[in-house]
Each structure stands twice: as C-alpha cells, then as structure tokens.
TrEMBL record:
Highest rank taxon of the organism: Bacteria
GO MF term (any one): oxidoreductase activity, acting on paired donors, with oxidation of a pair of donors resulting in the reduction of molecular oxygen to two molecules of water
Protein name, per record: Acyl-CoA desaturase
Fatty acid desaturase domain boundaries: 61-328
Organism: Stenotrophobium rhamnosiphilum
Entry-linked Pfam families: FA_desaturase (PF00487)
InterPro entries attached to this UniProt entry: FA_desaturase_dom, Fatty_acid_desaturase
Cellular component terms (Gene Ontology): membrane
Any one GO biological process: lipid biosynthetic process
C-alpha cells in the first residue's frame, strides 16, 4: 500500500490549505513582471515567424527558415496559446491576451480546446472515462482499459499521433471513436460537430500550404515543404512534451469513484499523482511552455507558467512532508518510460484492482480547485 493511501481527511485538508496558500500568494503578486514576460515572448515569436517565412524563400537560408518557423509555432502553441487560453494573463485586462478571445496557430478551435483541455482534462485529470487525454480515444494507455486487438497498433498509432498532433487535437472533442467503434454517436451528429473544426482546419491548411507558398512565387515549392517541416517539428515536439508529462510509468490513473465527494486536498493529490516533470535549462522550459513543470501546471493551471520554476521547490517540500511522490527526471528518462508503457499496453495484461484514492467517508471541504468552462 502506498503512502498516499494512508493520508487522513485532516492531512488532505492541510495539503489543500498549503497549496491554496501558494496559489493565493502568487496571484496576489502578479503584475508588470508577468505582463512584460508574455509581451516580450510574443514579440520574439513574431520576429521568428516573419524571419522564418522570409528565409524559406532564400535557398541558402532555407534550413534556418524551417528552424525559425518551427520554433515560432512551438512558442505560439506552448508558451503563448496554451497558457493564455488557460486564463493565466486575464489579470492584465488586455483584450489581445484574454482567454475567452485568444486564438492560436493550430488546427483546433479555441472553444473546443478549452472544453476538452481546460475543463475536462484539468477537472478530471487521469480519471478513466472522464479524461479523454488518456489515449485520445486512439491508444491504450491504462491497464484498466480493456484490451482490444486494435491496440496491437499502439506503437505505430503513437507515431502517427505525434506526426499529425495538431489535427488529432482538433478532432479530439468530436470523439470519433464513439461513431467508429462504440456506436454511441451518429454520423449525422459527427458531421454537425465537425463543421466548426473543418472551418478552422481549412483556414490553417490554406494559410500554410496555399497563401504563403503563392507569396513565394517561383520559390513556392521551398515554402510549401518548409511549412510541412515546421508543422512536423511543432507537432512532434508538442506531443512528446505532453506525453512526458502524463504517461511515464509512475504516473497514476484513477477510477471514477475517486471524484465522488472529492475534496480540494484530494483534487490536489490526484494532480500530483497524475503528473510528471522533466528537468532542463531555461530554454527547455520556455520551449515546452513550462510544461516541463507538469506537476505545478496541474496544481495551478491558471498561474503564469513562467512562475512554476520558482514554486517547484515549495511543491516538492510539501510532497516530502506528506510522503507523496514528486515524479521528475531527465527528458530522455521520461521519454523512455513513456514508450515502455506504450509498448507494454499494446498487449493484453491482467487488470489490477484499482485502489481508491481515499475512503468514501472523507469530508468534502471544497469543490475541485480548477474548473474553467469553455
């Protein structure tokens, strides 16, 4: 039996209070420093995008153009789009950085992403049948998920998911598997739900593969291939970062019973157990949208992500105080652990009994710590 399962209702309440104290202190300190950070980052991202698109039309500079455009897309999605749409910069009162109005350079609509990610994933983190990020409806990522012959393709499907990640994320909210596999959704419903997704997807495809290549004139083939390469670079990196934060072997998943009468402290502990960090320097953290601190992000998704490095020692100290794991390691270590899990779950496995996080008679002292409707 693990240490966390021995925590008392009083300890859960204390954990909730200590994490709340960190969150409240940081929120009270938000100000010009945070505004300057995000505005500077947006400026650098735009410079990289403009410079990259120009270099794609100059053959000797083409590789640098691909790299610059790829980095700009990563920054746009990871450190800017993801974090702005979490409401991390709503305090600024800047309409351009408002979570309800912001859109990003991605095939997914902001509205659908905020529903599947901000609400479903961050409220029901790693709860089977509630958190669609567990396998994205495509992969088997939990021993508690019934094995089917299709999961023998876990590995190649994971490669495909990495390659076309922005498009898989775009259709995630459609839950296509409910039509193709489980027959709980009609094709007519799917077609209607797909309309806004296709509108956004079509806009992105036209921009990268029609509009900018045409601007390149005789260099159109170079621009076209450069955009393909930059999008691939962004897709693979973003997917790898997200997988490393959610699927290393030590990361836990939970049955729906854990969210019955779940207290605030229990919600925090579930975030800890359902997340993993990876180490790196400042550039690594920026390029990952600071999701290298996935634990801190799951605990405090509405705090500016560049603050996570500062509060991580406090989070780790609380984990040590209560005997809770703090899952971290190098990027390579977490990658290898994640792929080991993917390979293992390709094959049938004995389904273990799922241990509840706490007993059902725990006191409900608060609602989930984070719930942002789309």
């Amino acid at each position: 039996m693990s240490t966390f399962s021995k925590l008392t209702p009083e300890q859960f309440q204390q954990i909730g209070a200590e994490f709340d104290a960190i969150r409240n202190r940081v929120r009270a300190d938000l100000g010009e420093r945070d505004a300057t950070y995000i505005r500077t980052l947006i400026k650098r991202q735009r410079q990289l995008e403009i410079g990259g698109r120009i270099m794609l039309m100059i053959p000797p500079a083409w590789p640098l153009g691909v790299a610059a455009l790829g980095v700009s897309k990563i920054l746009d999605n990871m450190e800017i789009g993801h974090n702005v749409m979490h409401g991390q910069y709503d305090f600024m009162g800047d309409a351009a950085l408002n979570s309800q109005k912001f859109d990003w350079d991605s095939a997914d609509t902001a509205k659908n992403w905020k529903l599947t990610h901000n609400y479903e994933h961050h409220t029901y983190t790693n709860v089977l049948n509630k958190d669609h990020d567990i396998g994205y409806g495509l992969l088997r990522m939990s021993e508690e998920q019934k094995w089917e012959p299709r999961f023998l393709a876990n590995v190649p499907l994971t490669v495909i998911l990495h390659t076309f990640f922005q498009h898989f994320v775009a259709v995630q909210n459609l839950k296509v598997e409910d039509v193709l596999i489980y027959k709980t959704k009609t094709k007519a419903q799917l077609k209607e739900d797909f309309k806004p997704v296709w509108q956004k997807m079509r806009k992105q495809l036209a921009k990268d593969y029609v509009f900018f290549p045409l601007l390149g004139g005789p260099m159109a083939p170079f621009v076209f291939v450069g955009n393909v390469a930059a999008n691939l670079m962004r897709n693979v990196w973003a997917c790898a970062v997200i997988f490393n934060g959610h699927f290393p072997e030590e990361v836990e998943q939970f049955p729906e019973s854990v969210i019955e009468n779940e207290t605030r402290g229990q919600w925090y502990v579930r975030q800890l157990l359902g997340s993993a960090n990876f180490s790196g320097g400042k550039l690594m953290h920026i390029m990952s949208g600071n999701l290298s601190f996935q634990i801190e992000h799951h605990l405090f998704p509405d705090l500016p992500a560049h603050r996570y490095a500062e509060i991580s020692p406090e989070v780790r100290a609380i984990c040590e105080k209560f005997g809770l794991p703090y899952n971290t390691g190098s990027f390579m270590r977490q990658t290898l652990s994640t792929w080991k899990r993917i390979v293992k779950l390709s094959f049938p496995s004995r389904t273990p009994a799922v241990r509840p996080l706490v007993t059902v008679d725990a006191v409900n002292d608060a609602a989930p710590a984070y719930k942002l409707a789309a």
